[in-house]
């Protein structure tokens, strides 16, 4: 026995319009899709180490904040390219941005975070709070 499966042989008008307005003649999107950089987080003995792959940015493009138990990393870069030839001028803009937030654990030193950006890799080091050693006190009996 064969199962019948309904298929959409023809695209809907909405999908055709969406394809038309969101792609150019070279099949590149007009609309810049959201960029979300990949992140690795390691739990080391004395710190948490966050590495974010964010090529194409400069050190000054980043903003890193820590507020109410949240670490937020955001960046925005804008470039402008102008090309003048015989009878035409072409001016192109490029903009890329992102924002990512992470919940911070309670056992950190919020005042002791360090960040470094080199070759497209952002590294954030978050120092863990020193655990208080249990006080052992012997009490004499009267």
UniProtKB/TrEMBL annotation:
Residues 30-142 form the SHSP domain. It comes from the Bacteria. Keywords: Stress response. Gene3D superfamilies: 2.60.40.790. SUPFAM superfamilies: HSP20-like chaperones (SSF49764). PROSITE patterns: SHSP (PS01031). Belongs to the small heat shock protein (HSP20) family. This is Heat shock protein Hsp20.
